[in-house]
Amino acid sequence: MAIDIEGIIKHAQNAQEPNLVYHRYSDAELENKPTTQLKLAGLYPKQPGEVNVELFAEKIADVAYADLPPGVHALTQFAYEGKPVILISNRVDDFENDDELYSRFKFNVAHECGHVIMQNELYRQACDRAIRARMRSKVSPSHGEAAVRRRLTFYRENAGYRWYEWQASTAGAHLLMPPEHLRYVIGQQLTETATTAPTRFLSEYSLRFRIEQAVRSIFRVSKATAEIAVDRYFKARPLLLKQTVAAAKGHPDS
User: Whole-prediction pTM value?
Assistant: First the structure.
């Protein structure tokens, strides 16, 4: 079935506040659902490294490359039946020679995948509620999905930063940096610092910077994505940086 690219873009530009009922996923669910989907798609990396998020998008949605509005790298339209649609900017070739721009592009694609993974089922539930309501009021049930669809094309320019955007960004980050691999990379950097790193200029700040650079390089993500991931890791372990620096300054070669 052909994808109505122009219709989806027009729809997205006029989209209203999504008519979804808030569903709170636990931290474990936010980690596990993206990881599970990567494994089902056969794209979960055997070791830390770059995830092919464009190929993953093609596994979970119908994907088309389109001339999207300036500043928009990707957008999603949910589906009541069949696969959702993800439109990806056809200007991807313009980004590939600029690591930072390409990393941002990849995050936007991962973000849209996050919407599909975490919220397409919520969309179907919203459609079911609308269909039931219309059946009770003797309005054609087919209007149920249409009513919900008017409000459920995600478009980052006008969607704002709502709970569904936070969920999609969190899931997208876990797609790009699978938590098991992220923890391994950070742990490896901490171990190397504690046991072998020169300590003359070592501080919590310099150690954090070193870890962010490693995450950015290994997973090929943007500076901002790496910083947020590392910050989240250490917020859950508030003393770890200080303890690692202290251990490094206490080792015999320091």
Answer: 0.83
Residues 6+ away with beta carbon under 8 Å from 14: none
CA distance 216 to 196: 22
Helix (H, G, I), strand (E, B) or coil at 177: coil
Distance CA 14, CA 87 (A): 16
User: What are the residues whose beta carbons fall under 8 Å from the beta carbon of 18, sequence distance 6 or more?
Assistant: 151, 152, 154, 159, 162, 164
Cα distances from 43 to residues 34, 100, 185, 232, in angstroms, run 11, 23, 19, 24
* Of residues 99 and 148, more confidently modeled: 99
Q: For residues 141 and 146, what is the distance between their CA atoms, to the nearest angstrom?
A: 9
Q: What are the backbone angles phi and psi of residue 88, rounded to the nearest 5°?
A: -120, 140
CA 244 to CA 250: how far, in whole Å? 10
Sheet-wide strand order for 62-66: 62-66, 85-89, 74-77, 153-154
Expressed in percent and rounded to 5, the helix, strand and coil fractions of the chain are 60, 5, 30
- Distance (Å, rounded) from C-alpha 156 to C-alpha 146? 21
SS3 122: helix
Angstrom CA distances, 105 to 96, 101, 121, stand at 9, 6, 25
* Confidence tier at 157 by pLDDT (50, 70, 90): very low
